[in-house]
Amino acid sequence: MTRYRDFHRRSIDNPEAFWREEARRIHWHTPFGTVLDRSKPPFARWFVGGRTNLCHNAVDRHLAERAQQNALVYVSTETGIERHYTYAELYGEINRMAAVMRSLGVKRGDVVLIYLPMIPEALFAMLACARLGAIHSVVFGGFAAPNLAARIDDAKPALIVTADAGARAGKVVDYTPLVDEALSRAKHKTPHVLLIDRQLAPARLTAPYLVAYEPLREQFFDVHIPCEWLESNEPSYVLYTSGTTGKPKGVQRDVGGYAVALAASMEYIFEGKPGDTMFTASDVGWVVGHSYIVYAPLIAGLTTVMYEGTPIRPDGGIWWRLVEQHKINLMFTAPTALRVLKKQDPALMKAADLSSLRTLFLAGEPLDQPTAEWITNALNKPVIDNYWQTETGWPMLAIPRGIEALPTKLGSPGVPSVGYSLTVRDELTGEPCAAGEKGVLTLDYPLPPGCMSTVWGDDKRFVSTYWSSVPNQQVYSTFDWGVQDEDGYVTILGRTDDVINVAGHRLGTREIEEALSSHAAVAEVAVVGVTDPVKGQVAMAFVVLRGAQADGDPSERARLATELATTVDRHLGSIARPARVVMVSMLPKTRSGKLLRRAIAALAEGREPGDLPTIEDPAALQQVREALGDGAKK
Ligand code: PRX
């Protein structure tokens, strides 16, 4: 372990020297002066004064050596479309998109909201923003109109880029009515909406400000737009994520630090070399998509595979066939996808030639042991669990095989990555825990390059949310429980807050509660995460109905339960839909009125909640128990 230990120690003891070296991985139009500005903790500014551009580093820089290499391979099993773009072709498409955006008034510092399915234009639009110095905010295509409206009001975009429709599991999902509803709900008036017409559904946007992309693209076919050279700490993007409150936080990322950190991660963790092919099965709407479908593989000169579809259509062998056909070297997905694939006919996997594949990476949720064992044996290749968050942008924990091929330990994503000074701390005292003791996973100041710079438009929230929750210490809280062993390996033991993880998607239970509370029949509601064999966790809602409805007959209550679940679909999107809505006449609370969510979750998982000395009315627990039982009998 000595090589890893030396590396890691150097990155913590002297971050300036360590990251000065790493910064050579990218192109700087103007060299930086100070490596790290620590004048305003907990804020950290990396590579101060340096000027660079993410699009230049991802695309232009490679044209000299790899213009004819594929940069992007796009496969949609929803539409049957497959397209390949060399670096030269990608350069052309990004310039066209940037020219179109510019013709609509987009300039450096403006926000462009991207609400697109998994189509190449999503990647073009992100990189076109980077080229123009505009800030992209990609909103996951599965989010519903009110969710989108909240992000429009927070990000105040100068332009929204959308499509006529997305497609999932053979079903077309119209986007334009959602955008239309979001625009009418939002207070902010977005001047233009750019429409990518896939011809899957008629565009039904009533807004007069709709602009079709294709005719403009033709008009700007041969235009070259120069890269804006941004100061390293200018924002590159905002990506919203859920937390304890109902209001999502805009995670703001910089330019230079992000490029350097991703480039370093490609060597130290992913071992991706120029010319390799990487398939990250995620969505551009999530942080894994931002970092490992779009930016990191391109910055490092790889070919990135972008996939629209599910892992089991047309059959459970599709991903393995993609590996064979495109000679994929690195694959990255979430454990949920593997739990789905595990149920498929093993012959489908055996039929494919997987010899090109070197490593499989998994992140986003805990990797359970049976799944880890199954896939390791089935593939007979390294399976690397890695742990991180939207906030950090790249792995905090992994096996840094590019530094040293440390052994994996089942149940642990590995050891802290370079630059991360990670400590497990006692929740009550803030003191470091001994090896083997459970505590909160925290990071010391400064966060390494690539991590969030602040909460968009709200520096105070950055400090009060992330840097103020551990007693007596100004450290960054991950809001995850963990335990570290004597060798430094960390095991993640779930969230400390009200965030749940459904099929690798991060959801705030408060957001789901707020959606349910908007229904007239709901008096009170508690949403908890409950263990699920495939999705890791699912949301379960416990609802107290208002007066008359509370006495309704069982069939009326069942109808209402479905209606409530649909309300969540409409507000947030179907990924947030509770797996079960359970009616109760009261919710267990403490004497000071705080909901006892952990007790409710324990009962829902068939466990006893243990000691609850401050419960207001123990009958409420009994109610929950009985209501759960009723459901089981149905
Ligand atoms: O609770 C941790 C869990 O997912 C959260 C972050 O989710 P998100 O912001 O969507 O970013 C995902 C980036 C991969 C974390 O706070 N989590 C993420 N990776 C793991 C994990 N839990 C256990 N093991 C992991 N490898």
UniProtKB/TrEMBL annotation:
Signal peptide: none annotated. Pfam families: ACAS_N, AMP-binding, AMP-binding_C. Residues 4-58 form the Acetyl-coenzyme A synthetase N-terminal domain. Residues 61-443 form the AMP-dependent synthetase/ligase domain. GO terms for biological process: propionate catabolic process, 2-methylcitrate cycle. The chain crosses the membrane at residues 111-134. Keywords: ATP-binding, Ligase, Membrane, Nucleotide-binding, Transmembrane, Transmembrane helix. Residues 511-594 form the AMP-binding enzyme C-terminal domain. SUPFAM superfamilies: Acetyl-CoA synthetase-like (SSF56801). Belongs to the ATP-dependent AMP-binding enzyme family. PANTHER family: ACYL-COA SYNTHETASE, ACYL-COA SYNTHETASE SHORT-CHAIN FAMILY MEMBER 3, MITOCHONDRIAL. NCBIfam families: PRK00174.1 (NF001208), PRK10524.1 (NF007815), propion_prpE (TIGR02316). This is Propionate--CoA ligase. It comes from Paraburkholderia monticola. The lineage of its organism: Bacteria, Pseudomonadati, Pseudomonadota, Betaproteobacteria, Burkholderiales. The gene is prpE.
